[in-house]
Write a structure and sequence with these properties.
Radius of gyration: 16 Å
CATH class: Alpha Beta
Strand content: 15-25%
Number of helices: 7
Strand order of the largest sheet: 2-3-4-5-6-7-8
Helix content: 25-40%
Number of domains: 1
Shape: globular
Number of strands: 10
CATH architecture: Alpha-Beta Barrel
Order of helices and strands: EEHEHEEHEHEHEEHEH
Length: about 230
Amino acid sequence: MTAIRFCRTPANPVAMGGYDLHVHTRHSYDAFQSPERVVAVARRRGLDGVAITDHDAFEGAREAERVAEGIQVIKGMEIRTRDYDDLLALFIDEPIRARSFADAVAEIHDRGGLAVLPHPYRKFDAVPDWVLELVDAVEGLNARSKPRWNGEAAGLAATRGLVATAGSDAHTSFEVGKARTHVPGSDDDLTASELKQAIERGDVEVRGDESPYYPTHGASVAMEFIKSRVRTRR
């Protein structure tokens, strides 16, 4: 593997091309946007593809794939592991059931997917070696992280010789496409298999910028609160 090429660009929601590899829908506990809305916004903003990675849920990815005309939908999940933290599963066709970090990575690989460590410095100051030895890639640019954390994540990928990816971590339509993974020289018009192979080779480039940190996370807290109240009333 080779380290990713990192290209920071000004925030531009209509920049053309690329793949947003970390997006949430209403199937996450802290988001409202429908899978149909995600696909429509991604298409309008010129994305070639979008990964639906709901928190411990897979139905949003299936729903998005059903309405994905003209855009590539990569089915995935964001898994909350019980012994470390979050883990992205990309290029899977079934939900991941395991909840220990190592077992979840093994299940992802058994299903032909990639295991990506998202936003590695959002909660921790360092990443254990055993985690880095298991994953296929590190999220080098997460638009919901602070610039310092993304800088550390990109540096981690570079120093450890790991591939890095980019994703908006969007929970609202405003955020979709803020961070993108590009495959140089391909025009980004790839099949899911071709994109997966490009990531495995490290033949990718991170582009994008951060969303406003406190407003976006505040919106997720509000959405989580509203959804919890609705469930309680039922």
